[in-house]
Amino acid sequence: MKKLFSVLKYTKDYKNYTALNILFNIFFSIFSVFSISLTIPFLELIFKNDAASYQTIIDKGLPIFNFGMKGITDWAYYQMALLIIEQGKAHTLMLICIVVFLATLLKNMSRYFAMFFLAPIRNGVVRDLRNRMMKKSLELPLSYFSDERKGDMMSRMTTDVIEIEWSIMQTLELIFREPLLIIISLATLIFISPYLTLYVFLLLPVAGLVVALVSKSLKSRSAKGKVVFGQLFNIMEETLGALKVIKAFTGERFVQNKFEKVNEDYNKISVGLYRRADLTSPISETVVLGVLLLILFIGGTMVFDGTGLLSGAAFLGYFAVASQIVPPIKQITLAYNNIQKGLASEERIDKILQAENPIVNKTNPVKLNEFSKHIEFNNVSFSYKKGDDGYVLKNINLSIPKGKTIALVGQSGSGKTTLADMIPRFYDTDLGEIKIDGICLKDIEIESLRKLIGVVTQESILFNDTIENNIAFGIENPDITKIMEAAKVANAHDFILQQPEGYNTNIGDRGGKLSGGQRQRISIARAILKNPPILILDEATSALDTESERLVQDALTNLMKNRTSIVIAHRLSTIINSDEIFVINKGELAERGSHKELLELNGIYKKLFDMQNFA
């Protein structure tokens, strides 16, 4: 039961709205029953055709009001009889209709205000959840996303959050509105006829048992459906991002078949889920109707017997109130189904929100405002899978002095990029430590550390926004003059001015409206505007044609002036002037020295250099 209502934990910031929702649901339940039960005393009296009967009631005098069955009934009978004698039956009926209308109006107003105060809870929780999931996604280390599909992450932030919204609404109704309506209705039934209500208590649990049995597997089926739906999202995301490759390799049919297969799996799961969910409502309604018909038979027999245990008018009112139990039981059935699906979504969302983030600030971290000496790797080893002996980096020892340009070379998969990614703490060391100016990276505030570092990658990561906003990414209230100066240094200013709207031109998804060389120069301009003392260049020119490479290389030369630069390169011709070159082989530091010194060693570097020159 505790887990059933666990989704309510998301409403803790909306206690006032929740309280108001509960209050108006209470009013709704009271007015729902009151509007019906009010007619019972009038029906009882209106069938008495002789005035003497009314006068007998009046002659007894106004009874003392109390909350017992007899006290309320006698008081109501006296007031009704007085009205009938003084105003007539038609006038009394009109007054009763007005009161019932007002009670119904208040009931519907209460229902509206209950939903009015539920709306901020529903939408606020969705907003908060998405904000928390996005914040958590930005905080989690890169290693987390190597094991997660982007499509599944998107599915959790969209469809699963919507399930939570519906689950919260249904849970609030399941707890506060429908049960309350049932309780008030049952209390009224007990008030009218305790004997007849005993049968209701004995028979209604049957409906609850049937619903529980039918709904038992909804949670597991819903969870499975969400996993498959995440796969659909992933296929769509990958397809839209790789259309050029798909078309070039005539893979349309292959991708379509893959999508259709997963889509069919989702269809089968969804059909089974809906069929089972849709089965609970008619079954519960049928069972409850059977109970009511049995009550109708037993109550009718009591009236026919003429024993006085139940009058005809009281029985009509009793059955009218009893019929009010059917809709809330039906709603509880639907709510229970949605809550089961919501629990499956909650588990998927919590998997993200509760994911461990090992790369966090220590208590009272050092705030690093400048880089003044050197970067040191001391016996650094790292593995992507913790506890795995297959280290990507093994016992790395090196020092990078301020203002120097060092290069990392080696075959693909040797660990060059991983080594560079450890400087801004995209990953943490398993063994050993990395220091900047003698301070361990783990002791430095992450934000201040990354403000000192600029990164230019092989793939230009740009956003579907204007050129100006891409260059100024991460900077609040940027100066357009400084943006233009950065673009000039990056050899980007001229081609930017040729765009339809200059710096305000939108470059499309991932900068698709620009060429590869133009995208890379925008990335370099972004790094120049940040003006970091430490620069990481990861294969920044390897994907470009000769002319673009020259322009980008000139921009990189401008960028690297007076900075400490770590350059990862396959094209050795671009790093021959580096102050020192480190050769990484199978995760180990195999060779180090200047270009000339490494050639004289006649080792791995010489072999790579000769292969490129020969090619």
Please describe the topology of this protein.
Blueprint: H1 15-37, H2 39-46, H3 51-59, H4 69-87, H5 89-139, H6 142-145, H7 150-192, H8 194-215, H9 218-241, H10 243-248, H11 252-305, H12 312-323, H13 326-353, E1 374-382, E2 393-401, E3 405-409, H14 416-421, E4 431-436, E5 439-440, H15 446-451, E6 453-456, H16 467-471, H17 480-489, H18 493-497, H19 516-530, E7 534-538, H20 546-560, E8 564-568, E9 580-585, E10 588-593, H21 595-601, H22 604-614
Parallel strand pairs: 3-8, 3-9, 6-7, 7-8
Antiparallel strand pairs: 1-2, 1-4, 4-5, 9-10
Mind explaining what this structure looks like?
The structure is a single chain. The chain is built from 22 helices and 10 strands. With 615 residues, the protein is an alpha/beta fold. It has 2 domains: 6-353, Up-down Bundle (ABC transporter transmembrane region fold), CATH 1.20.1560.10; 403-409 and 451-614, P-loop containing nucleotide triphosphate hydrolases (Rossmann fold, 3-Layer(aba) Sandwich). The chain has a 6-stranded mixed β-sheet. Strands 2-1-4-5 form a 4-stranded antiparallel β-sheet, with no helix packed on it. It starts with 14 loop residues before the first helix and ends with a helix.
Structural class based on helices, strands and sheet pairing: alpha/beta
Low-confidence segments, ≥5 residues, pLDDT <50? none
Q: In DSSP terms, counting alpha (H) and pi (I) runs of 4 or more, how many helices?
A: 22
How many strand segments? 10
CATH architecture of the largest domain: Up-down Bundle
Give the CATH H-level superfamily of the largest domain: ABC transporter type 1, transmembrane domain
Radius of gyration: 38 Å
Looking at the structure, the CATH topology of the largest domain is ABC transporter transmembrane region fold
Shape: elongated
Average of pLDDT = 77
Q: Give the fraction of residues assigned to helices.
A: 55-70%
Largest sheet report = 6 strands, mixed
Overall number of structural domains: 2
**What is the strand arrangement across the widest sheet?**
6-7-8-3-9-10
Strand coverage percent: 5-15%
Distance between the termini: 70 Å
Which CATH class of the largest domain is shown?
Mainly Alpha
